[in-house]
Amino acid sequence: MEKNHLHYLEQLSEQYPTISKASAEIINLQAILNLPKGTEHFLSDIHGEYEAFSHVLKNGSGAVRKKIDDVFGRSLSEADKAVLATIIYYPREKIELVKKTEEDMDSWYKVTLYRLIEVCKTVSSKYTRSKVRKMLPPDFAYIIEELITEKPEVLNKEAYYDAIVDTIVNLGQTEEFILELANLIQHLAVDHLHIIGDIYDRGPGAHLIMDRLMKYHSLDIQWGNHDIIWMGAAVGQLACIATVIRNSIRYDNLDMIEEGYGINMLPLATFAMSTYADDPCDIFVFKQLGDATRTVSESSLIRKMHKAISIIRFKLEGQLIKKWPEYGMQDRLLLEKIDYEHGTIELDGEVYPLRDCNFPTVDPENPYQLTEEELAVMMRFRSSFLHCDKLQKHMRLMLKKGNMYKVYNGNLLYHGSVPLNEDGTFRKVNIYGTEYWGRELFDVLESYVRKAFFSTDMKEKEKGADLMWYIWTAPYSPLYGRKKMATFERYYIDCPDTWVEPKNCYYELINQPQIAEMILHEFGLYGKNIHIINGHVPVHRLKGESPVKCDGKVIIIDGGFSRTYRKRTGIAGYTLIFNSYGLTLTAHDPFESAETAVKDGVDIVSRREAVELVDRRILVGDTDVGKRMKERIRDLRDLISAYQEGALPELESSNYIVY
Fold first, then answer.
1. C-alpha closest to that of 241 among 391, 396, 447
2. 367 exposed, middle or buried (CB, 10 Å; 0-12, 13-18, 19+)?
3. What is the pLDDT of residue 658?
4. How far apart are CA 277 and CA 222, in angstroms?
C-alpha cells in the first residue's frame, strides 16, 4: 500500500476507528446510492419579483401538486386537491379563510392533517430517515416522525394514528402542526435549488429574495450581471454604486435601497434639486411597475435624481475605461464625443442632435471629472454601501453559494453566454494583460471577484472591484454578451437604430449541436444526457420561440419573471425541474397576489412539458454526490483491508480522543 494512501487511511481511521464502524458506514452509503435522486429546481432572472419567486419556491414549480396527484389520484376532486395545495403553500392564511365559513373546524383539521401526512410520507420516501430527521421542526420532530414512518409492529395502526391526531387537535396545536407539516413538505419536495443569475434590479423585492435564500436548506447561485454590479457596489466601487442607484431610480425602486438596505438618498436628492432646479429632465423618465402613484412634485424630483446619477455614472464609467485600456471599451467614451456648443454628438461617423443639451456639471475639457459636489455625494454613498450590514450579509451569501458557473449532475449552469467568434471558436478576452477564453475566462473572472472581497493586496483588490463593472457591461463578458449597453443613446438620441445592443454570436451559434458539444466538453462534460442551462436573454414565447434548443442540449429558462418583459415573452417565467424521471420545463402565468392564491386556489403553473425523460429512474448513485459516495466506499474498503492486514490498528471508541 502506498505511503500517501496509508497516511490518508490513518486520518480516515479517526472517523471510523473499527472494522464494524467502517462496515456500518459502507452499508449506509450503499443503501443511499439506491434511493431515487432528489429533485433539483432551476430558476433564473428573478429580478426582484419576490411574490412570484416566493410562490414558485412554495409550489416547487408544480412538484408539490404532482405529489398530491400521485398520492390521491382520482380519490380527491380537482377542487379538493387545489385546496390542499394552497394549504401547503399558505397554511396560516388558508386556515384563517376557512374559519370564516367552516362550522366544524375540528373535523376539517383532522381531514387536513391526514391528507398532509400522506403527502409528507410520499415526499420523504426518497430520503433516508437521518436526512428527514434533520429537516423536522424541533417542537414536533418526534410526532411527525411517528406519523410518517410505517410501524409494522403496531397491530391496530388506524387506532394508533387516530390517537395521535386526536391529541394534536384536542391540545389546540393543530394550526402550528399544519404549518410545520406544510413547510416540511415544501422542503422535501425540492432537494436542491439552482438560481441561474439576476436576483437584483427591476422588481422591488431583491432584498426579500436574499433574505429567503439565506434560510434555504440547499442551493447554489450562478452570478448574473445584475448581481455582479451589486457585488461591486458592496465593495465600494463607485461606478457600480452609481449604476445600481440609477437602475433603482429607473424602475422606481428606491424603496428597496432606502428601506430594504437603509441607504439614505437625501444627499443625491439635495444635489439634484440644487443642480437641476430649472431643468425639467424630461428625458429621464422612470418606469412605474407597481401600483404606487407619484405626485407631480415627486415625479419631478425623481427625474432630477435620475439625471444627476446618470451623468455621474457616465463620468465614472469613462474614468474606468481610461484607467484600464485593456478593457477595450474606448468606443464607449461618449462624453468626449459631444459638441457641447451645438448640442450634437458624433457616433460612427454620424452626427445626431441631442435630446437634452443641459450639462451643468460637465467640463468639456475634462468631461469625466466629477465636481466636488458629485464626489461628495458618491463618497457618502460609498460609506453607506460599505457599512450596510444587511447588504454585506447578502453579498457573503453570494460568495459562499455563488460562482460564475457550476457543473452539477451532468448540467452546465451559467447565466449568460460563453463568448465566441463568428467562426465558432472561443473568443480570447484580455484580462489585465493576459488573454483567456472558455472555462479559463470564467475562472479568472471569478478569481478577481473574490479578490475584490478578500485580497490583502490592495492593487489586486482594486482590480477585482473595477473588473466587476467590466463583467456587468463589457462586450465579451460572459454575463453580458452584447456589443454595448446603449443607456446613453436611449436617453439622448432620438434614433432607435443607435439603441440596438447586438448580441454576441454565441446566441446564434449555440443552436448548432457541435458548438454546444464544444462548450460542454470545455467544461468537462461528455456523453449522453448532458445540458447547458442558462438564462439572461428572455425567450419570446409569443413569437413561437422555444426555450429548448439544439436538440435538447441547451435550455434557456429566462421567460420573463420581470414584469417589464411579460408583454414581450407572453409568460411570467420558465423554471426547470430535474427529478429521478428526467427534466421537465414549466411555463408560468403571471402571479397576481398571495391573497388571490389563497382565496381562489389559483396556482401559476400554466404548462409543464417533458424536456427529457429517462428509461430508468435516476438514482443517487448516478449523481455527483453518488460518485463521491462510491469513492468513499472504496476508501472505507481499503481501510477495512488495512485493519485486517495489520497495516493499521483498530482503535477502541472509548480510547479515541477528539482534540
1. 391
2. buried
3. 45
4. 43
